[in-house]
């Protein structure tokens, strides 16, 4: 079988310094293995054995809950059924009810807008911060790096608590500053009392915590750009915009794509920030899909319904990221 | 290269403003934690604690089971980090270095697995745990946290392993080292930044996790610090001093680990993913 002998390290075409006699390394390796046929069989199983623990973990710890979740989504499962261990199948009833419910579509739309706004802000501001890091002198760069690290490392629940304190209606420092700046109606403003202002706080929190990751990644990426490229482009009289589009952007593109992909996943899934700031309120107006699934399922004890929402959430997330997934798979194909 | 005065001032001025924006919430957390009540509930903010006190920290630590929760959090977090590193390392090596049937499928599997919205699967996980007597235990929690960080860890480490020139490994093997020895002596040291950034990611994910432990472990003896922090807020209402002291205590281990490792880790996570 061809698979069994395909071990990457001896890939033909790799130049080798010690290869005396002009023998292609691939052949040499092949012959070495031919002398020991027993080894050949074991090599074929090696990759699968190495992957086995990760695969078992994925099947048991993720696959099983996912399948279970899928099954629950076809059941009428509320508090009573849960306690009495009853299984009441109700077909696609949960999905039918959800998809014909205007509320679900509102929440889905809200989730998408929330994700687009946050990802855009994070990517634009994070990239600018990363480029800024690259332009700074040594000392200022270290100072800003430490500041970014502090925000990045703040545990989410801790950060959420701190933001609640910053935006507290009484004695909160934000309201005091706004009042001092002359916006007196903000003196005792209740930030979690309105849909928009609650989202504002949540967005600020998410953007504040996500910028460092993007900035550090992009800064690291700029360090891989050869300085000569800039010199050459400048000689040709390229302006700042031209430099960005001909030199910087092509180098940063893969990093931007990978980071955007992670940000879409992380932000679309954000739960703790929204839930902890105001539990999806006021009046359930800041529920995004994950929060909606949790409130409907765990909070209102419509477990089957919650499971159906979560399945739809997963499908939407897959659709959102399918472009990047396809791109990566194509890249993978080219490599083989 | 010559830059105009304005060209030098702008970046630095922006950097100063950004520094303040990013540091202030963290500073405000610590400073509130050390303030006496009068300084906290003041109509004009008190920017520095006038008479620093440890009273808030005392209130925070005196909560029931505090030290048990600290221990639980460390056990679960460290366990998940080590376990995921080990399992991911094996898988990443196979995906980076060996060509075999189904490799693309495995890569896709991990890419999709990393998207799993755990928060919305808590009901299913609860039922599984309940039916197999796994409630109120630390081991299932550790295993689930391991799984939460495993996919990204695999993909990142794979990128780092792929970036190590094959010649290096081969040279070691020609010198008589076994494949295992070549891996330990040659590849492993070059993976340090990847290992560190993935362990940081694992550390912060497990340390923070909240919905799953909330549902699975109702028993206070088996809970972790995020539950303490959130219950603390409910119990003490607007006692911001104590709440900020609790948040500080919760944040300190992560802040310390990040500040120590940050410069070695910068850019590690996507660098690994991109190189792959």
TrEMBL record, chain A:
Biological processes, Gene Ontology terms: transmembrane transport
Residue intervals of the ABC transmembrane type-1 domain: 108-324
TM stretches of this protein: 46-67, 112-134, 146-166, 196-220, 251-268, 303-325
UniProt cross-references to Pfam families, sorted A to Z: BPD_transp_1
Gene Ontology CC entries for this record: plasma membrane
Span of the signal peptide: none
Membrane topology: Multi-pass membrane protein
Region of interest: Disordered: 1-39
Compartment list: Cell membrane
Keywords attached to this entry: Cell membrane, Membrane, Transmembrane, Transmembrane helix, Transport
InterPro entries: MetI-like, MetI-like_sf, UgpAE/MalFG_permease
Keyword Cell membrane: yes
Similarity comment: Belongs to the binding-protein-dependent transport system permease family.
Name of the featured protein: ABC transmembrane type-1 domain-containing protein
Organism: Streptomyces smaragdinus
UniProtKB/TrEMBL annotation, chain B:
Gene3D superfamilies registered for this protein in UniProt: MetI-like
Signal sequence interval, chain numbering: none
One BP annotation, GO: transmembrane transport
Keyword Cell membrane in record: yes
UniProt keyword Membrane present: yes
InterPro entries reported for this sequence: BP-dep_ABC_trans_perm, MetI-like, MetI-like_sf
Domain ABC transmembrane type-1: from-to ranges: 70-261
CDD domains referenced in this protein's UniProt entry, alphabetically: TM_PBP2
Membrane topology of the entry: Multi-pass membrane protein
PROSITE patterns the UniProt entry points to: ABC_TM1 (PS50928)
Highest taxon listed in the record's lineage: Bacteria
Keywords (A to Z) from UniProt: Cell membrane, Membrane, Transmembrane, Transmembrane helix, Transport
Localization, UniProt: Cell membrane
Transmembrane segments annotated in the record for this chain: 12-30, 74-95, 107-129, 141-161, 182-207, 240-261
Entry similarity comment: Belongs to the binding-protein-dependent transport system permease family.
The protein's name: Trehalose transport system permease protein SugB
Organism from which the protein derives: Streptomyces smaragdinus
Organism ancestry: Bacteria, Bacillati, Actinomycetota, Actinomycetes, Kitasatosporales
